[in-house]
Design a protein that fits this description.
The complex is a heterotrimer of chains A (282), B (426) and C (271). By secondary structure, chain A is an all-alpha fold. Helices cover 72% and strands 3% of the residues of chain A. The model of chain A has no long low-confidence stretch (mean pLDDT 87). Chain B folds into two domains: 33-148 and 308-375, D-Maltodextrin-Binding Protein, domain 2 (3-Layer(aba) Sandwich), CATH 3.40.190.10; 151-304 and 384-423, D-Maltodextrin-Binding Protein, domain 2, CATH 3.40.190. Classes of the chains: A mainly alpha (282), B alpha/beta (426), C mainly alpha (271).
């Protein structure tokens, strides 16, 4: 097995990825070393100055904090909910296929629609949320609630992603293990902790990495809901980068911001792999 | 089973790839110039707009117009233009720009100089505000197409009921709103746009200007002034002290306000002229009850609306500059402006249109709009405006939500703006 | 008995949570314009098909749905093909710098799209692919590959090595093992990845907006973004459009679900 060469199999994907992304990645890295402000006609190589400036940029730290908060809370909630739902539906019942298709709905709705939908749902005046709660919370306009509204909308949208992956992961666990454990008198919680969870680890790793990757780069949902406000309390790194690149045309600093996002996500992935992966092959 | 499904998939893929090559436009032959006109979605009946373009094509048989539409979100349009123009794209010739982008694009070298199309004697044909916005270093870089300005909408029926007149001062607005609110149930006094976005800046600057304040002065930040602090504090007080504006204004954009006011749940609204047509539609709860006037000012001051509207420019990299100028000349001509006003409800940028009897008949408040447009003030027409607004938006929002005091917010904004202007000199 | 009711109760909560908003969208899509903004009439008493008519007659919607379908289908098939092959190499065969390859593959997904859209657009223009579906297919495949590769590699690794060795002894080359044994075994993973890639491609907005200009290559999310006028948001039309585009995806998912189940019962895994 290890004598057979696998390069022929891996090559197509790797080649495509390299061809398409090499230029953009290099371009972004390259730009991040420049002070490029098109309006001012400046295009000057300044080395690591953008990054040094970032260290003192209060708005950057604010965005980092918001992003970290959203990522942490979102991913934790999604994981908990996703695993819970996957376990719940992992048994035969009537209309199972329909139920599983419906669970996919949040993921299936286009983001342009779901973000606007949530904006409507969180409308203080005529939104469904306040209608159901019988309250008049200023969801999107209050510094405290806004970020949680964003988290809620994101969790709703992406939980199906977790469900579908965990569910597929559950199918791979041989049923004999469960039956044997049940015979031995193990309760459902013990089964979960001792058998299910450890065997789900590889899938959970994939889920954690990709969800964190996405949550850290979150843009559309938050931008539509709050535009980064009020008072930048929901401004994420991606939103800040977007405003730098496309609103104020600071291509150098904006690219540096993108590189920092990249580095943060890379760090998070490495941490996950170290924590969860057992085999050295990873 | 598997081989069959794999075979199905491969055939599907081949079909898809072949189908993919069927997309894209057919090439146009025979010596006509194809002019690509890029603009945001037309608010109104697109078929009518098409008629106007057809008319141009009939008058210019060797030009064909390819009309490419962008989403109406101004952010998305700006993003599109940035990506394309920074990449020196020649894929479009004529572009429609928000009033605040022209100096920026001009400075970046993305627009053609159009001073020839608008010689000095013609410049007076358009409103002064837009002309200021399209002028950069004394050269013209765009032609005003249609104009917008902030207006005060009010419930004429309710004001009549309580024997009140539309207010001239903000203080009066508060007073009259409270009277109506105490008499009617479930009404807000005054709704305006307070979400952290460009609209917030428009609203806030209107308050500033109506108190004699400004943003820039002599090349430096002049935003940290007692007049502005007073105005900003007043805005906040509308929510927390006088309670005539609900806390939800900090999430409100134009449509939010329009819905609330259009549902009969507000006495006053600040919004753009587009709202009037929507409010007067059949089935609207406030049909026939809406009045429009100039915004109020602080006691002893003059009111000022923020200028909006769109301008037509030519892509510097376009290879059809001559034809592009023809199209722009056409769209800003009296016949086209009148057509747009009647068919689509746009407000012409040509002053002479406001004396046209047909338009005056068809559009209520038309004369009033003329006055307001004449005094409408552009946001600082500077290439750095996009940066300045990115500084102002969070600061204003912080003041409104109580995170910072108005003084702190203005002081912080002033510092950042000075830093910005200082970084690049003047 | 109690357990069963508890289960169905919990299930209903989950379904309400997930599907609630789309049901609300369906209800909204048949509401006449005047009732759109108000909540008490949650279900209208005067249902109207006006929004659906507006969606299909006012925009070349069928063409746009076709575009999205072509792009999504092509992307899915290409991603699965290249991704599963790559995963096979990484999971079962000898590949140099395996971890590096995985890290590189992952890093492609780590950049914020807003930073890469500009340079990618320049490439697309340089290749003359602006305003074609190819531009989207290539881009989407590229950005779907990391997830595909990681998911499928994971699953291949859970397939016991003995199967490979046994097949090898029987004289099968690696390609036949991949094609005839590994792929059928990992249908759950393949269809999971397929659903995720399809949905990603169906709903992607930023690149679609940037790379396409006319209706001939426009996809659904861009078309929906073009619905609103300068300030007005036609909620009824948007609801109708979103119902129209979400339903096919759900039906597709329904079809795929059964494959996932099938996959695990065709278990050579049981030895």
């Amino acid at each position: 097995m290890r004598d057979d060469r696998g390069t022929g199999f891996t090559a197509p994907a790797v080649v495509l990825l390299t061809l398409v992304t090499a230029y953009p990645l290099a371009y972004v890295l390259y730009l991040s070393l420049f002070r490029k402000m098109v309006i001012f006609d400046i295009s000057k190589f300044i080395g690591a100055d953008n990054y040094l400036y970032m260290l003192h940029d209060a708005r950057f730290w604010n965005a980092l904090e918001n992003t970290a908060y959203i990522t942490l809370v979102s991913v934790a909630l999604e994981l908990a909910l996703g695993v819970g739902i996957a376990l719940l539906i992992n048994r035969p019942f009537r209309l199972k296929a329909v139920a599983r298709a419906l669970i996919l709905v949040p993921w299936a709705i286009p983001t342009v629609v779901s973000a606007k939908m949530w904006e409507w749902i969180f409308n203080t005046d005529s939104g469904v949320m306040n209608y159901l709660l019988g309250a008049r919370i200023n969801w999107l306009g209050s510094p405290f609630w806004a970020i949680h509204a964003a988290v809620f909308a994101d969790v709703w949208k992406t939980t199906p992603f977790v469900v579908i992956l965990i569910y597929a992961g559950l199918q791979v666990i041989p049923r004999e293990l469960f039956l044997a454990a049940r015979c031995d008198g193990a309760g459902p919680w013990q089964i979960f902790r001792r058998i299910t969870l450890p065997l789900l680890k590889p899938v959970i790793l994939v889920v954690l990495i990709f969800r964190s990757l996405d949550a850290f780069r979150i843009f559309d949902t938050v931008y539509v809901l709050t535009g980064g406000g009020p008072a930048n309390t929901t401004e994420t790194l991606s939103i800040y980068a977007y405003k730098l690149l496309f609103q104020t045309l600071q291509f150098g600093y904006g690219s540096a911001m993108a590189v920092v996002v990249f580095l943060c996500v890379g760090l998070i992935s490495v941490l996950y792999v170290k924590m969860l992966a057992r085999e050295s092959a990873w | 089973m598997t081989t069959r499904s794999l075979r199905i998939m491969t055939s599907l893929m081949l079909i898809s790839i072949l189908a993919a090559s069927c997309s894209g436009e057919k090439k146009d032959g025979s010596g006509t110039t194809v002019l690509v006109f890029k603009h945001g979605k037309i608010a109104g009946d697109y078929a009518e707009f098409k008629k106007l373009l057809d008319r141009f094509e009939r008058q210019n048989p060797d030009i064909r117009i390819k009309d490419e539409i962008l989403p109406s979100s101004t952010d998305e349009q700006h993003q599109f233009y940035v990506i394309n123009l920074e990449g020196k794209s020649a894929d479009f010739d004529v572009l429609s720009m928000d009033v605040i982008w022209v100096p920026e694009f001009a400075r970046a070298g993305w627009l053609r100089d159009m001073s020839g199309l608008l010689p000095p004697k013609r410049r007076g044909d358009f409103f002064p505000g837009p002309m200021r916005a399209v002028t950069y270093h004394n050269r013209i870089y765009a032609v005003p197409w249609y104009i917008d300005a902030g207006l005060l909408y009010y419930r004429a029926d309710l004001l009549d009921k309580y024997g009140l007149k539309p207010p001239d001062t903000w203080e009066e607005l508060v007073r009259t709103a409270r009277i109506v609110m105490s008499g009617e149930r479930g009404m807000y006094g005054f709704v305006w746009q307070g979400k952290q976005y460009e609209g917030l800046v428009c609203n806030t600057l209107e308050f500033f200007w109506s108190n004699g304040g400004r943003v820039l002065g002599r090349g430096k930040a002049a935003i940290d002034s007692p007049e502005n602090a007073q105005a900003l504090a007043f805005m906040k007080d509308l929510i927390v002290k006088y309670k005539i504006s609900p806390p939800l204004v900090t999430t409100a954009v134009e449509e939010t306000c329009r819905r609330i006011f259009g549902g009969g749940r507000a006495v006053y609204m600040r919004n753009w002229p587009y709202a009037f047509k929507v409010l007067e539609r059949r089935g609207s709860a406030v049909r026939g009850k809406v009045g429009v006037s100039e915004l109020p000012a602080f006691d002893g001051r003059k009111p000022r609306s923020a200028l909006g509207g769109w301008q037509l420019g030519i892509n510097r990299y376009s290879r059809h500059a001559r034809e592009a100028e023809l199209l722009i000349g056409f769209l800003s001509s009296p016949e086209a402006q009148k057509f747009l006003a009647l068919a689509l409800g746009y407000n012409p940028a040509l002053k002479s249109m406001y004396r046209d009897p047909d338009l005056r008949l068809a559009r209520p408040f038309f004369e009033r709009l003329y006055r307001i447009f004449m005094s409408a003030r552009p946001r600082p027409a500077s290439p750095y405006y996009m940066m300045i607004t990115q500084v102002m938006q969070p600061e204003f929002s912080a003041a409104l939500t109580g995170i910072k005091s108005p003084q702190e917010a203005l002081e912080s904004a002033s510092r950042q703006i000075d830093h910005l202007l200082g970084v690049v000199g003047r | 008995m109690v357990k069963k009711t508890a289960f169905y109760l919990l299930l209903s909560v989950v379904l309400a949570y997930c599907a609630g908003p789309i049901i609300w969208q369906i209800l909204t899509s048949v509401k006449p314009d005047q009732e759109l903004a108000r909540i008490p009439p949650l279900v209208t008493s005067h249902p109207t098909a006006a929004h659906y008519i507006a969606v299909f007659s006012g925009y070349p919607f069928m063409r746009i749905i076709l575009n999205s379908a072509i792009v999504a289908l092509s992307t899915t098939i290409l991603s699965l093909a290249a991704g599963s092959a790559c995963a096979f190499g990484l999971a079962k065969l000898r590949v140099r710098y395996k971890s590096l390859v995985l890290a590189f593959v992952l890093s492609v997904s780590m950049f914020p799209p807003i930073a890469t859209v500009s340079p990618l657009y320049l490439i697309i223009r340089f290749l003359g692919l602006r305003d074609t579906l190819y531009a989207l297919i290539i881009t989407y495949t590229t950005f779907s590959l990391p997830l595909c590769i990681w998911i499928i590699t994971n699953f291949f690794r859970s397939v016991p090595d003995e199967i490979y060795r046994a097949a090898r002894i029987d004289g099968c080359g690696p390609w036949r093992i991949y094609y005839l044994i590994m792929l059928p075994l990992s249908l759950p993973a393949l269809f999971t990845a397929a659903i995720l890639v399809f949905i990603f491609s169906w709903n992607e907005f930023l690149f679609a907006l940037t790379f396409t200009a006319t209706a001939s290559s426009r996809t659904i999310p861009v078309a929906i973004a073009l619905f609103p006028g300068l300030h007005e948001i036609p909620w009824g039309d948007i609801a109708a459009a979103s119902v129209t585009v979400t339903v096919p995806v759900i039906l597709l998912a329904l079809a795929f679900q059964r494959r996932i189940v099938e996959g695990l019962t065709s278990g050579a895994v049981r030895g």
